[in-house]
Amino acid sequence: MEITAYLDMQKKRVDKALEALFERELSREYGRLAEGIRYSLLAGGKRIRPVLALAAIEAVGGDGESLLPLTLPLELVHTYSLVHDDLPAMDNDDLRRGRPTNHVVYGEAAAILAGDALLTHAFTLLSDPVYDKVLPASRRMEVVHELSSASGLCGMVGGQFLDIVSEGKNLTLPELENLHRHKTGALLRASVRIGGILAGASSEWVEALTRYGEAVGIAFQIADDLLDVLGTAEELGKAAQKDAGKSKNTYPGLVGIDRARILAEEKCREAHEAVAVFGSKGEPLARIASYIIERRN
Ligand code: GRG
């Protein structure tokens, strides 16, 4: 199966499960707040984090069907981070996935609360005794630890702060890498580790998934920066291409477009090497790594 068909199939499974989750658990009694949650949670998005978790489950021979609901908290946390990242106090963005951002449609207070509700619901879900039949509470507790530490001070939240305080400063390459390891890398790394933990993988296998997740986290960010720069350059015209991105702390801004591409390829190779241990079962993970550096959105 083509990787795009595989990703599309997995995304559809995740979308369906998210839709059901919303109907079942995210009560619609709360009017505009619930509408806002639905607006951000169910509108597009590649669902790459739960899809990575599902591919990790597959790599270690776990049951992706029964464990699927326990990968959804990754998307809840990701969606919260995007809603809060777009707020006026953060990036102040008006558009996300081609549509007005949550606070533009529902107002700032409702957007803050929608983000809060999405974040907390991730942990309501993981700690819900209804999943005792699927996975023992002690294993779900490991996932709670993994997800909360990747999202919090020593992960995404810390990274977001590093990003905010580095605005206007020229970062070195190691500083930029540290920022992204936290801001976007931590949740991507946690996605595959969570897949492994859910499926009861050995510590060696979780270690292999960790190496994969770390490499993919950096590759994902470089690809995102390149998309940004090339998109901007397209808008500005060819002449501006080599200067595009230079005013921002981005990989192409720091090392140039060509070197950034080489770096992304290096990370992709590292990711492939890490999952070789899973043989053919690790193929979807390997192909997702390649897709991430070649993607166009
Ligand atoms: C507000 C605590 C807090 C954190 C925000 C992740 C993040 C931290 C901000 C997002 C800023 C951003 C655009 C980073 C670039 C990489 C990235 C995470 C892109 C968006 O993720 P995708 O491509 O989005 O997975 P979709 O739309 O597919 O869900």
From TrEMBL:
Cofactors required: Mg(2+)
A biological process from GO: terpenoid biosynthetic process
Keywords: Isoprene biosynthesis, Magnesium, Metal-binding, Transferase
Listed InterPro entries: Isoprenoid_synthase_dom_sf (IPR008949), Polyprenyl_synt (IPR000092), Polyprenyl_synt_CS (IPR033749), Prenyl_diphosphate_synthase (IPR053378)
Magnesium listed as a keyword: yes
Cellular component per GO, a single term: cytoplasm
Domain of life of the organism encoding this protein: Bacteria
GO molecular function, one term: prenyltransferase activity
Cell inner membrane recorded as keyword: no
Family from the record: Belongs to the FPP/GGPP synthase family.
Protein name: Geranyltranstransferase
The organism's taxonomic lineage, starting at the top: Bacteria, Pseudomonadati, Nitrospirota, Nitrospiria, Nitrospirales
